[in-house]
Amino acid sequence: MLTPPARSQPQPGHHYDVAVVGAGLAGCELAYRLATGTATQPGLDVLLVSQALDHLGNLYAPTVAGADFPAGSVFADVAVQTAPQIDAWMFHRALKARLENTTGIHLLQSCVTAFQEAAGVVTLSTWEGPPLHARRAVLAVGAFLKARLLVGDTLEDAGRLSEVAYDFLADDLASWGLWLVPTERRTWNADPAYEVRFLSVPRGELDGFRLRRCDAVYALGQMVTGEHNHASVLEDAATLAGELLGHAP
After folding, report:
1. Of 27, 111, 135, 190, which residue is least crowded by CB atoms under 10 Å?
2. Helix 25-36 and helix 88-100, axial crossing angle in degrees, nearest 10
3. Dihedral of CA 23/24/27/32: which sign?
């Protein structure tokens, strides 16, 4: 019988090295790279928070054909392993299994509503009540900050179909004095097609990936204003992972 890998078993008050909020393309890639480390840098104790674990790393496309995942990313590795089967649902299931079985990643289904910094610790508040603690936090919530989804004439408080928006987190970021700008994306590969309007963080509010108004909170992926694709988001996640691994105690 195979011995199951060691798992993070945090107790109340546990302090993670890094908490990643959002488990889409950016969040999953970042969490995996942080947990696995490099040849010279050991992996970290990582919390990966998602509003719905069943949507972990979901690309929301019929197939992964033409996704252009950069070499070295966990997405590219899983795509190779699932080839020639390119069905996106099978890819999502394989990616989720990879993350679930990665030592150092603790998966949590929860919704983060606010954060505070004090004495070198970032404390995340949640809808469910229990606070989460980490030395650093990365926000990778995509198109979900104060998101409003328009399908035909119907408006829904969501970042994707039936996925709730991060309204409280957007309000909390604004209370820090962070400038958030209106952004729009139209999704054509969904059925039905929809438009999502959300708030994003301008690059002028960032020092690299770190929020200028914070010491240990970062923003990554589509929630940062600009043009994004699969490759650019995964490459940014790799860059930030290298930075955070290099700063680990």
Report:
1. 190
2. 30
3. positive
User: For residue 148, how far is the Cα from the chain centroid?
Assistant: 19
The answer to whether 147 and 184 are in contact (CB under 8 A) is no
Nearest-angstrom CA–CA distance, 93 and 43: 24
For residue 228, give the nearest of 190, 201, 191, 192 by alpha carbon: 201
Q: Calculate the average pLDDT of the chain.
A: 87
pTM of the model: 0.91
Going through the chain in order, the beta strands assigned E by DSSP cover 15-21, 46-50, 105-109, 112-118, 121-126, 132-139, 148-151, 154-156, 158-160, 163-164, 181-187, 194-200, 206-207, 210-211, 217-219
Q: Which CATH number characterizes residue 208's domain?
A: 3.50.50.60
Instruction: Name residue, tokens 């990966």.
Output: 48
Determine, yes or no, domain membership for 52.
Answer: yes
Does residue 187 lie in a domain region?
no
Query: For the chain, what is the domain count?
Result: 1
The tens digit of pLDDT for each residue in 198-214 reads 999 999 999 999 999 99
Give helix 25-36 / helix 74-82 axis angle, nearest 10°: 100
Q: Is residue 242 part of a domain?
A: yes
Domain that holds residue 70: 15-141+202-246
CB atoms within 10 A of CB 120: 10
pLDDT digits (tens, 9 = 90+) for 132-156: 999 999 999 998 899 888 777 776 7
